[in-house]
């Protein structure tokens, strides 16, 4: 069975795209078949995977497979059924694929918003709320994917509401700062509303649509706190304060709210993976100069070759040391994700 994981935080710049790419690559390295989905109309993930030169030409050629074109049969009332997308193989990593995004995906935002609120009364809109999930399932089947990782846009939009509530799992990427704490506080209030909507949508008239809206079964896996400045391997004091605050807000606000919505796995499952009650899956420090090398090579920081790291002597040795430390961090993160999601798979 394919597990769908949404990377969501309505705050921008918290490493959603970077984490989707890095974790997806690591899961593929561990033998899982993974599809990365770019559901942000900024298309940063598509740009990151293709590199900017290929990216620019990608949309010039006639309609190559992407999220918007694939959804057009539903959103533009075409007389054909939605079909699986021919995902692109990600260069340098077997078992990893990309379902590209589209800058105009947001054109479907308003229609989807109306469909999600009113579709009981407007017959032609009933097929929209289940269409994205249908497309992702079809594509997963075609590729026999173990995981679909969805990189989402930084907003509380209808498309995000839809994608999140039809996913199996949620990971919240976040940064150690005041704005991330505020964003988490807001999520603690918004997510219960989305759960309530999805419960209603999954049990009502949308079940009988051509693309049925699936019953919601979303579970929170945890947060990933990224880009702290380390001091001797640990977050420096100024950042530690925010790391702690993020932990508290997750424990005290977000998790209790999600628990009421049945959005949390049994405690034992997190415990078995060594996850504390702050639900932090990983603390990832600032990649510093490795981030530019990673972007240039369209390769995660931990998978950069010596050639891609460049330099010589002690400078290269230091890069290599950092690279290998990040490899361990992402390997541990992937193991936790596999552990958590395989529990849910077997239940
Ligand atoms: N651990 C990290 N260290 C250094 N830079 C990072 C790290 N994670 C992300 N970035 C950079 O921060 C910026 C925002 O990250 P991104 O993944 O695009 O966030 P989002 O998708 O949440 O908007 C990007 O320029 C990215 O390269
Ligand atoms: Mg992004």
Structural account:
The chain starts with a strand and ends with a helix. The longest helix has 33 residues, at 313-345. The chain has helices spanning 16-29, 44-50, 52-58, 67-75, 109-118, 131-143, 158-165, 178-203, 237-260, 267-272, 290-297, 306-309, 313-345, and strands at 3-7, 34-38, 88-89, 96-99, 147-151, 169-174, 219-228, 230-231, 234-235, 280-285. The strands form two sheets. An eight-stranded mixed β-sheet has the order 3-4-2-5-1-6-7-10, with helices on both faces. Strands 8-9 form a two-stranded antiparallel ribbon. It contains 13 helices and ten strands. The protein has a single domain, classed as Rossmann fold (3-Layer(aba) Sandwich), CATH 3.40.50. A hairpin with a 2-residue loop joins strand 8 and strand 9 (234-235). Helix 1 (16-29) crosses helix 2, helix 1 packs across helix 13 (313-345) and helix 2 (44-50) packs across helix 3. It is an alpha/beta fold and 347 residues long. The site of adenosine-5'-diphosphate has 16 residues, from helix 1 and strand 7.
Shape: globular
- Protein structure class: alpha/beta
Q: What is the CATH level 1 assignment?
A: Alpha Beta
Run of helices and strands: EHEHHHEEHHEHEHEEEHHEHHH
Strands, count = 10
By DSSP (H or I, 4+ residues per run), the number of helices equals 13
Mean pLDDT reading: 93
How would you sum up the major sheet? 8 strands, mixed
Strand content: 5-15%
Work out the helicity level: 40-55%
Look up the CATH topology.
Answer: Rossmann fold
Compute the separation of the termini in Å. 12 Å
CATH superfamily: P-loop containing nucleotide triphosphate hydrolases
* Name of the CATH architecture: 3-Layer(aba) Sandwich
